[in-house]
């Protein structure tokens, strides 16, 4: 009996791998520009690490979820936009776990083409 398992692949695996590697490089570049110590905010549902990064276009916050591996950088205007939101918008974001509230244009176009 062979202990070797077949390698299963999915459609788009190489593209997913390349995108993940690119995102990891970008995250590492941002972390090289970090200023000060990260702030960790956690409760029983989530843990988030926030760090200021100084880019050539100004300061941004890198918000990182160590558990999921997801991260984002936000500039001051994007952060201010959070203050314009109401509880319903934030609840909708939380209720749409691990997915954007509004998909990217290419995601929308791709699903429309698949439906045709």
Automatic annotation (TrEMBL):
The lineage of its organism: Bacteria, Bacillati, Actinomycetota, Actinomycetes, Propionibacteriales. It comes from Nocardioides luteus. This is Dihydrodiol dehydrogenase. Residues 1-18 have a biased composition (Basic and acidic residues). Residues 1-22 are annotated as: Disordered.
């Amino acid at each position: 009996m062979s202990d070797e398992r077949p390698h299963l692949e999915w459609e788009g695996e190489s593209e997913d791998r390349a995108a993940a590697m690119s995102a990891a490089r970008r995250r590492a570049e941002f972390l090289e520009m970090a200023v000060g110590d990260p702030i960790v905010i956690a409760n029983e549902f989530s843990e988030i690490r926030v760090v200021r990064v100084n880019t050539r276009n100004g300061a941004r916050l890198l918000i990182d979820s160590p558990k999921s591996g997801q991260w984002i950088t936000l500039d001051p205007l994007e952060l201010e936009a959070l203050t314009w939101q109401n509880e319903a918008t934030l609840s909708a974001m939380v209720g749409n776990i691990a997915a954007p509230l509004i998909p990217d244009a290419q995601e929308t176009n791709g699903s429309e083409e698949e439906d045709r």
